[in-house]
Amino acid sequence: MDFDMLGLASHLVARLAEQGITRPTPIQAQAMPHAMQGRDVMGLAQTGTGKTVAFGLPLIHILAAQGTKVAPKTVRGLILAPTRELARQIADNLQAFTRGSHIRVGLVVGGVSINTQIRRLERGLDLLVATPGRLLDLLDRKAVSLSETRFLVLDEADQMLDLGFIHALRRIARLLPAERQTMLFSATMPKHMDELADTYLTDPVRVEVARSGQTAAKISQSVHFIAQNRKKELLIELLDAHRDELALVFARTKHGAEKLKRNLEAAGFAAASIHGNKSQGQRDRAIRAFREGATRVLVATDVAARGIDIPGVRHVYNFDLPNVAENYVHRIGRTARAEAEGAAIAFCAPDEMDSLRAIEKLLKTGIAVTSGSPWETAPAAKPRGNRPGNSARRPRRWKGKRRAA
């Protein structure tokens, strides 16, 4: 199958060919025909499998065919993303597809001048890519109206739930017309996703090309069981073996990410960091330098786990394991993109064993052990008596010893 067979307009097929995209991925082949027919779609697919094309090209195809003039301060199609990086990535892709056409694409995210965004919205837009928080700011200022919005896409909807955007989504939904086409895409399917789908989708077609928690086949995964105070030493050793390749390192906190970046610079690596304490300009410059190879190591928190689409990333290091198991899937999905090969290396300290178990439960498989052996935990303490209020168990304590591999 090729894109011509999906009924996509010839100029869009040509735009794809210019970017070296000639054959649809499974999620694109299965979702696009339904989307182009105006159906609501609920799509589940691994990261790096082309979900942006799956929803973006049908929207552009339909909007171009309609040829309707956009009213001031209105948008015809709205795409919501959980992070600034992902929103920018989507907008960049859509702008490449619409180059030379009358379709206008806009981007609104936090961290940059809201007044500039207000001016860009005055003429109206065919497609607006936004993060929920900044969109609500603009709606409160009456800088944009959703009364004419007939298309809605929720991309990486599971992370919107993780980041607490559910109330923002409900506010936005009340401002949209009831008659609209809605598409929801995600890489994992947490418990509340069906509730979200019931709220926003009408008789949707469910397209599932990977089970929830499945990772790309070409990612080799491994774990090192290592004490927290020895992680930095091991990371430097592993990075040093692949100095010419791009590596993405995930830390749990903003402070931890910045400290680790400085440690790597002191060890002679060209490193940068992105996290919530960085301005949008700083984050954009760090990603640009990483994409161009001027920076070889990028240290990030989960704010960037779904916003980096750089085919050259060969190694993803989970310096700190994520608290939410699904985030592991999205982190390691930054490598092995577009069917390339990649490696995901996890470091597990004693107090991260519960996180590792949750990840392996989600993956439905164990992760290969490269060094060390699993940390043991002491059994939970029994309740002290049976009086009311004494039923809670004490936190488990780590023995700090290893079990034979």
Description:
The structure is a single chain. Helices cover about 35% and strands about 20% of the residues. The chain is of the alpha/beta class and about 400 residues long. β3, α5 (about 115-120) and β4 (about 125-130) form a beta-alpha-beta unit. The chain is globular and about 60 Å long. Residues about 380-405 have low confidence and may be disordered.
In brief:
The protein is of the alpha/beta class and 405 residues long.
* Main sheet overview: 7 strands, parallel
Helix content: 25-40%
What is the gyration radius calculated from CA atoms? 23 Å
Quaternary structure state of the chains depicted: single chain
Output the CATH class name of the largest domain. Answer: Alpha Beta
The arrangement of helices and strands along the chain is HHEHEHEHEHEHHEHEEHEHEHEEHEHEEE
- Note the beta-strand portion: 15-25%
CATH fold descriptor of the largest domain: Rossmann fold
Low-confidence blocks of residues: 378-405
Total of domains: 2
Q: Name the CATH architecture of the largest domain.
A: 3-Layer(aba) Sandwich
Number of helices: 14
- CATH homologous superfamily caption of the largest domain: P-loop containing nucleotide triphosphate hydrolases
The number of E-state strands comes to 16
Overall average residue pLDDT: 87
Q: How are the strands of the biggest sheet laid out side by side?
A: 3-4-2-5-6-1-7
Q: Termini separation (Å)?
A: 48 Å
Shape: globular
Structural class designation? alpha/beta
